[in-house]
Amino acid sequence: MQKYLTRRGKGLGLRLGVRTTGCSGLAYKLEYVDELTPEDQMFESHGVKVFVDPKSLAYIDGTELDFAREGLNEGFKFNNPNVKDECGCGESFRV
């Protein structure tokens, strides 16, 4: 992930949060962070800083975020111990 941030040429890291959507209610959202928000919590792993807003933290506390490659596909995998149910397509979840 660090190489994508470096290639972008700016930014402080990634912001991980949740938004209301889908049939199960919540979905993850990821975006680049260019400016700090004072209330964000910051976590760092493998040189990548991940920022989480306080409202989202309640839904994703304890979540493991991994960037995985499987064949020609690559993307983020979320292992969230708080998830009680997921929609059939896997796009949204409920805690």
TrEMBL record:
<dbReference type="InterPro" id="IPR035903">
    <property type="entry name" value="HesB-like_dom_sf"/>
</dbReference>
<comment type="similarity">
    <text>Belongs to the HesB/IscA family.</text>
</comment>
<dbReference type="GO" id="GO:0005829">
    <property type="term" value="C:cytosol"/>
</dbReference>
<dbReference type="InterPro" id="IPR011302">
    <property type="entry name" value="IscA_proteobact"/>
</dbReference>
<keyword id="KW-0408">Iron</keyword>
<dbReference type="InterPro" id="IPR017870">
    <property type="entry name" value="FeS_cluster_insertion_CS"/>
</dbReference>
<dbReference type="Pfam" id="PF01521">
    <property type="entry name" value="Fe-S_biosyn"/>
</dbReference>
<dbReference type="InterPro" id="IPR016092">
    <property type="entry name" value="ATAP"/>
</dbReference>
<protein>
    <recommendedName>
        <fullName>Iron-binding protein IscA</fullName>
    </recommendedName>
</protein>
<dbReference type="GO" id="GO:0051537">
    <property type="term" value="F:2 iron, 2 sulfur cluster binding"/>
</dbReference>
<feature type="domain" description="Core">
    <location>
        <begin position="2"/>
        <end position="91"/>
    </location>
</feature>
<dbReference type="GO" id="GO:0046872">
    <property type="term" value="F:metal ion binding"/>
</dbReference>
<keyword id="KW-0479">Metal-binding</keyword>
<dbReference type="InterPro" id="IPR050322">
    <property type="entry name" value="Fe-S_cluster_asmbl/transfer"/>
</dbReference>
<dbReference type="GO" id="GO:0016226">
    <property type="term" value="P:iron-sulfur cluster assembly"/>
</dbReference>
<dbReference type="InterPro" id="IPR000361">
    <property type="entry name" value="ATAP_core_dom"/>
</dbReference>
